Amino acid sequence: xxxxxxxxxxxxxxxxxxxGAAFGIVAALDATPEQQNVPLVTFPDPPADGASSTPGPGxx
Length: 60
Description:
Structural class: mainly alpha
Largest sheet: none
Region (Disordered): 41-60
Protein name: SPW_0924 family protein
Shape: rod-shaped
Radius of gyration: 30 Å
Number of strands: 0
Organism: Streptomyces xinghaiensis
Keywords: Signal
Signal peptide: 1-18
C-alpha cells in the first residue's frame, strides 16, 4: 500500500509541476513586448503609367 500511495503522489506532483511549467511558459511569452513591424528595405513606387524610364534587361 505505501508503494501505491507513493506512486500516486508522484504522478499527482508531476502533473501539477507540468501544468505549472506550461502556465509559466505561456505567461513568459505573453509578457514579452511585440516587435515593431518596420521593413528593413523599402523600394520606390513604380511610375503611374507602368513604363520604366530606364531600359530593363533584354530590351536592347
